[in-house]
Amino acid sequence: MVRLYTKGLHIGYGERLIVKNLNVEIPDRKITTIIGANGSGKSTLLKAITRIVPQQSGTVVLDGKDILKENTKILAQKMAILPQTPESASGLTVGELVSYGRFPYQKGLGRLTKKDIEVIDWALEVTGTSDFKYRSVDSLSGGQRQRGWIAMALAQETEIIFLDEPTTYLDMAHQLEVLELLQKLNIEQERTIVMVLHDLNQAARFADYMIALKDGQIVKAGDCEEVMTHDVLRKVFQIDAHIGRDPRTNKPMCITYNLLKGDNQNEKMAIPLSSIGAYR
């Protein structure tokens, strides 16, 4: 089932076109990961789908409606986005931060209702941040802070959650903590999760569906077996990858690779695996 898709999407900044004639479908109740080199249009695509940046042409359709014609609060009840660098929450407690997720449901003076408080407490509990409710966001570790932001997105009670590089700046343990939380939300609550990830092996490990972008266009979209291949990674990243199997999940993973360079891409230079995302 597909509730969300784009048709002929063109997105740009000024005269520079970032995403070109993009037609993409987001599978419902699945985890979709988007991969691609820097500047390939990954973040721009997320921002356009969630109406943060306008498209130059084309359409984003959710539940049969053009999102540009949808009421802002109604749209915010369907989709939540956690950007790569969330706005500063300086001075806020975790509980106050999470309460911002209730904005789409507030009326009048915007006071929290009993239902709002129940949802906030639920979001804190699900993300394991209840103990931090009255603590300053500034006092938390990177992983704890990221879980707080995810709790805010959950408090928005949307069925679709977008995350732009949710593991950036986190150590290996906290990266895994955040990704396992998102996987749990998908499995237990059937949330549709769409996230941009730089770590290819994490992207494959946690995804049901992958989208590989290059220069604002889709090189390949499908399950992990279709996208995590030697040919696709060569086209997207200009690397000569050796693909193996994750011993825990049996999903494809990049074991090692060489960088291809030169006009004919015949020259190769070894690159440490850690720079593209080692197995977690």
Describe, in plain words, how this protein is organized in 3D.
This protein is of the alpha/beta class and 280 residues long. The chain has 2 domains: 1-78 and 158-237, P-loop containing nucleotide triphosphate hydrolases (Rossmann fold); 88-155, no CATH class. 30% of the residues lie in helices and 30% in strands. It has helices spanning 42-49, 72-76, 94-99, 114-126, 142-155, 172-189, 200-206, 224-227, 230-237, and strands at residues 2-13, 16-22, 25-27, 31-36, 57-62, 65-66, 79-82, 160-164, 192-196, 209-214, 217-222, 239-245, 252-261, 267-270. It has a 6-stranded mixed sheet with strand order 7-8-9-4-10-11, sandwiched between helices. Strands 1, 2, 3, 5 and 6 form a 5-stranded antiparallel sheet that branches. A hairpin with a 2-residue loop joins strand 5 and strand 6 (65-66). Helix 4 runs antiparallel to helix 5 and helix 5 (142-155) runs parallel beside helix 6 (172-189). The longest helix is centred in the middle third of the chain and has 18 residues, at 172-189. The two termini are 31 Å apart. Mean pLDDT is 89; it is low at 266-280. One of its GO terms (molecular function) is ATP binding. It is found in: Cell membrane.
